[in-house]
Design a protein that fits this description.
Helix content is 32%, strand content 24%. By secondary structure, it is an alpha/beta fold. β3 and β4 form a beta hairpin. α5 crosses α9 and α10 runs parallel beside α11.
Length: 404
C-alpha cells in the first residue's frame, strides 16, 4: 500500500506482525494494522497515533512525512490505547501541538496519560469544523461505536471519511485475504453489541459525499484504493456501497447468509457425530449451506462471527455437571455479551443418564431478544441410535422450513 491517501493526506500507520492476541483475547494470525494519518496544509493535522508497540516506527513515519515541519493539531478520535499509545511521546516531541477532541475525550485523557492539557486543547461538538487551509475537518460524534468518546472526521475538500474503529478489520495491511471475513469477525466481537449506535452513525454518514473511508484498522477503502490479492498482487477495493451495506446488515442484526450453523460442544465425540448426521440430513433435504464447528477446538471469535452471520443456528452440546458442557456455556455467554438476537435456534443435547444441556441452553437463550427455539429439542443418550433418527429428521425439516 502507498503512503499517500491523496497528494496531501498521508498514511503514517504501522503494521504489528508480532501480536498474538488483540485486546488480549482475539487471535490475529496475520497481525494488526494501527492506522494513523497526516494532512499537510497551511496547518498540519495528525489523525490519531498508534499503539505503543509501534511507537518508534510511527515516529519515524511521521518525521519523514513532515519533512522538517511541525504538526499543529492531533485529532483524538478514540481513546483506546491502540490509538493513543504514542500520544504522550508526540506531545513530548511537539509541546505546542493542539489536541482536538470532544468533552468526553478530555475527561478520559488524564486517566490514561500524564500530558499537560492546559491551553493545548480544542474541544469540538457534533458538526463543528476546523480549517487547516484548503482542507476543512468536520466532526461527527459517534458515542458507543464502541466507546462513549468516539468521534469521526470528514475532510470536506477531498471527501475522505476518517471512521475510527468502524470499517476496520484484523490483519496487517499487506495481508492478502477476504476483507469481509476478518472485518465481520472484528465487527461482531468488538462492535457487535452496539448495533443501535452504528445505525445512528450510518444515518449521519448517508448525508455525506464520501470518496474514501480511512479506518483505524485495516485497508483504506474507496476510490483509487487497492488491497492485496493472492493471485493478482493488488486489486481495487469494492464500491463503498458494499462496505456500507454490510455494516447496515450487521448492525441491524439481520442475517447476512442463508444457511444453518451447527455449533458443537462434544466431550467424547458422540455429540459431534449426531451433529454431522443432522448436517447430512439437511443437505439431503436441499439445504445448500450447513457449517459444523467443534467449538472446543476453534477460535471463539470465529464461532461468534458464524453465529451472527447465518440465519439459523443449532446448538449441540453434552450435559455436564448438571448443566451444559462448558465450551457451550462460554459461547452463549459471548453471544449474550455481544447482543445476539433475531435468530431461529435448534437444540440437540446429549446426556447419558440425566440430560441437562437443553434446559441450561434454554435458560441462557431466554434473555436474548427475538430468539425462537425450534421444536423438537432432540435428546440422545450417550450415542446416536436408530430410534433417535425420526426426531433428528423432524428437526432438520423445521430448520429448512424456518429458512424459507
Amino acid at each position: 500500500m502507498t503512503d499517500r491517501v491523496t497528494d496531501t493526506i498521508r498514511y503514517i500507520g504501522v503494521d504489528d506482525r508480532d501480536l498474538d492476541l488483540f485486546e488480549s483475547q482475539y487471535e490475529v494470525p496475520n497481525g494488526m494494522a494501527y492506522n494513523s494519518y497526516l494532512i499537510l496544509d497551511e496547518k498540519i493535522a495528525i489523525l490519531d497515533t498508534v499503539d505503543e508497540r509501534g511507537q518508534d516506527a510511527w515516529i519515524a513515519n511521521l518525521t519523514k512525512a513532515l519533512e522538517g515541519r511541525k504538526p499543529d493539531y492531533v485529532v483524538i478520535q478514540h481513546m483506546e490505547p491502540d490509538h493513543t499509545g504514542s500520544l504522550k511521546k508526540l506531545v513530548e516531541l511537539y509541546p505546542d501541538i493542539q489536541m482536538v477532541g470532544n468533552a468526553k475525550t478530555f475527561q478520559m485523557l488524564p486517566r490514561f496519560y500524564p500530558v499537560d492539557t492546559e491551553g493545548h486543547t480544542v474541544v469540538v461538538k457534533e458538526g463543528d469544523t476546523l480549517s487547516l487551509g484548503s482542507h476543512t475537518l468536520q466532526f461527527l460524534l459517534a458515542p458507543m461505536v464502541h466507546w462513549p468518546e468516539v468521534m469521526m472526521t470528514y475532510e470536506q475538500s477531498e471527501k475522505v471519511f476518517f471512521s475510527a474503529d468502524a470499517f476496520g478489520k484484523f490483519g496487517t495491511l499487506d495481508t492478502a485475504e477476504d476483507w469481509a471475513c476478518e472485518a465481520r469477525r472484528y465487527y461482531f466481537n468488538i462492535v457487535g453489541k452496539y448495533g443501535a449506535p452504528v445505525q445512528t452513525l450510518l444515518k449521519k454518514v448517508s448525508t455525506l459525499d464520501i470518496r474514501v473511508i480511512a479506518p483505524l484498522h485495516g485497508p483504506i477503502l474507496g476510490e483509487g484504493c487497492m488491497i492485496p490479492d493472492e493471485e493478482k498482487g493488488e486489486v481495487p477495493t469494492e464500491p463503498l456501497s458494499y462496505y456500507l451495506g454490510l455494516y447496515d446488515t450487521w448492525s441491524s442484526y439481520r442475517a447476512e447468509t442463508k444457511g444453518v450453523f451447527i455449533a458443537v460442544a462434544s466431550i467424547h465425540g458422540n455429540t459431534l457425530k449426531a451433529a454431522e448426521k443432522l448436517k447430512e440430513l439437511l443437505l439431503a433435504k436441499g439445504e445448500e449451506r450447513v457449517v459444523v464447528s467443534e467449538i472446543s477446538r476453534e477460535d471463539m471469535a470465529e464461532i461468534v462471527e458464524d453465529a451472527f452471520r447465518h440465519d439459523r443456528i443449532v446448538l449441540a452440546a453434552s450435559s455436564y455437571d448438571g448443566g451444559v458442557f462448558l465450551p457451550m456455556h462460554d459461547l452463549l455467554t459471548h453471544l449474550s455479551y455481544k447482543g445476539f438476537r433475531n435468530r431461529k435456534v435448534g437444540i440437540l443435547e446429549n446426556g447419558s443418564w440425566a440430560p441437562t444441556a437443553a434446559r441450561t441452553i434454554k435458560g441462557l437463550l431466554e434473555p436474548m431478544n427475538g430468539v425462537e427455539i425450534l421444536e423438537p429439542v432432540v435428546t440422545i443418550r450417550s450415542a446416536l441410535q436408530d430410534e433417535d433418527l425420526p426426531k433428528l429428521e423432524e428437526l432438520a425439516d423445521r430448520l429448512i422450513a424456518a429458512g424459507e
